[in-house]
Specification:
Length: 157
Amino acid sequence: MVRSNVRLTKEGFERLKATLQQEYRRLEEATKILQDLTGTSDDYDDSGLEDAKQEKARIENRIDELETQLDRAEIISENDPNRVDLGNLVELRDLDADRLMKVQVVAPVEAGVLEGDVPKVSDESPLGRALLGRRLDDEVTVAMGDKKRRYQVVAID
């Protein structure tokens, strides 16, 4: 199976690296707890010992996932300033509510993070998919549940 690169903003890449370091620290702590429990437990079926093993395994899986994402990471450099792409801040006019909003289009591993007042929207979400490749003044319609919202691209940064 060929794995594609994960396109990330520089901030997203740095955040993933910091998260990986945090998970390494958690793994050290979990390993120490497991060693302490193993050394003091007379019964290897002890539920505390089993919980510690499971937690250590979860942390190891998370580390593997983060390392894979970082190995596949491609940091976004410059985009076409006239087209929405990953990393762009996009100002939208909600045509149904007549209000302005900003979002940053990012890879799924960066989505859901709120920095300041700008939400990060995955390029795999309905809004993210609709925005990719759009130009200034383009209109998009996004299905949100049983409703549809209409947006106009007002600015691309």
